[in-house]
Amino acid sequence: AQSVSQHNHHVILSEAASLELGCNYSYGGTVNLFWYVQYPGQHLQLLLKYFSGDPLVKGIKGFEAEFIKSKFSFNLRKPSVQWSDTAEYFCAVNPSWGKLQFGAGTQVVVTP
Amino acid sequence: DTGVSQNPRHKITKRGQNVTFRCDPISEHNRLYWYRQTLGQGPEFLTYFQNEAQLEKSRLLSDRFSAERPKGSFSTLEIQRTEQGDSAMYLCASSLEPELEKLFFGSGTQLSVL
Question: Which tens digit of pLDDT belongs to each residue from B17-67?
Fold first, then answer.
């Protein structure tokens, strides 16, 4: 079945620590990949996206993600997190124009 | 606020009742999406519109669910004969060419079916 898997449901880390969130998908063919973020009390918003070209993409607030086609992965990273990065992060795949399929999300808590 | 607006924010209803939610997308956004989200899960696609045309419906959208976007602006999502399993957050999003994949989400309508 087509799916998007996020490896961790909850991550707790300290400020300045590095963050990596895993995402794997199981779609054949060409897909577009996204990370969305939902900060406490706010709407879901786009963090970054990959369509083609350089597999390392940079998004807002110092986040980046790497597309590894052979591993069907699109992991999100940030070298040094801040307290304000506390949020829920969703990986999403767009296998066809018109809809995004989201993973279950990872709740990230950054402690001071 | 010129973002996506959803009403009501919360809806509590008894099983078997009908409910209707409204979504006002960002002005001029031609794509409008409905998603459903339950606790511990990501948003699940329900349906989307290109202007007033409903182009795709998920198999999650049973016959009890109907969505409309009559003039290509606001949209409504109606659930008939609600069931407890319909309890969820119903999210609306909109987007605009050429960045159709950049969805702008509303705050959602939290439905509780008792």
Answer: 999 999 999 998 999 999 999 988 999 999 999 999 999 898 888 899 999
Closest CA to B85 of B108, B104, B111, B109: B111
Q: Minimal Cα distance from A44: which residue of B?
A: B105
Closest Cα partner for A61 from A51, A75, A73, A46? A46
DSSP B46-99: EEEEETTEEEEE-TTS-TTEEEE-TTSS-EEEEESS--GGG-EEEEEEEEETTE
Residue A62 main-chain phi, psi, to 5 deg: 80, 5
Q: Which residue has the tokens 């961790």?
A: A8
Torsion angle (degrees, nearest 10) of CA A39, B111, B22, B59: 90
Query: Which residues of B fall within a CB distance of 8 Å from A36?
Result: 103
Contacts of B58 in chain A (CB under 8 A): 99
Express each pLDDT in A15-68 by its tens digit.
999 999 999 998 777 788 999 999 998 999 999 999 889 999 999 899 999 999
What is the interface size between A and B, counted as CB pairs within 8 Å? 54
